Amino acid sequence: MEIERKFLIHTPPADLASYPSQLLEQAYLCTEPVVRIRRSDDTYTLTYKSKGLMSREEYNLPLTAESYEHLKKKADGNIICKKRFRIPLPEGLTIELDLFDAPFEGLMLAEVEFTSEEQALAFLPPGWFGDEVTWSTEYHNSTLSQRTPNESAGTT
Questions:
Q1: Chain centre to alpha carbon of residue 147
Q2: From 19, 28, 59, 139, active-site residue
Q3: Would strands 108-113 and 80-88 be described as parallel, antiparallel, or unpaired?
Q4: Is 48 a catalytic residue?
């Protein structure tokens, strides 16, 4: 079960470069249900996500580099590229701050994952977080994958 809240970010922390980061590339084979492939460094994954906003089922399966490249050719829509920073919070929580590349350059989203819905609902976001978009599908990566560049969410 994935339980997360998502927020727009307008100004990231000044010390962002001091946190660990990784480059992610992901593509969607299907958006209903969500079937995603992702490359993160030398790790390749196929993910299934059920419907839902704050809480939904998520299953991950490992892929080989060859399988990933084969499936990537079958992707529907935009391939999402972003840099993810991992910023620790108290109580063992972590902010995953994504800075998107074209065609969504300028879009910054922060996600925080939780172990329960109660913990998620009790969470008080840091002051530098912008509007919460947890309850909107507009900022799901699967939705972004289907947008044309002139429809890019959060970049206008």
A1: 16
A2: 28
A3: unpaired
A4: no
pTM for this one? Answer: 0.90
Tell me which amino acid residue 107 is: L
Cβ contacts of 126-129, under 8 Å, gap ≥ 24:
126/89, 126/95, 128/9, 128/11, 128/12, 128/13, 129/7, 129/8, 129/9
Encode pLDDT of 84-94 as tens digits: 999 999 889 99
- Tokens 């972590």 sit on residue: 94
Summarised one tens digit per residue, pLDDT across range 23-74 is 999 999 999 999 999 999 999 999 999 988 899 999 999 999 999 999 999 9
CATH homologous superfamily for the domain 2-151: Hypothetical Protein Pfu-838710-001 (2.40.320.10)
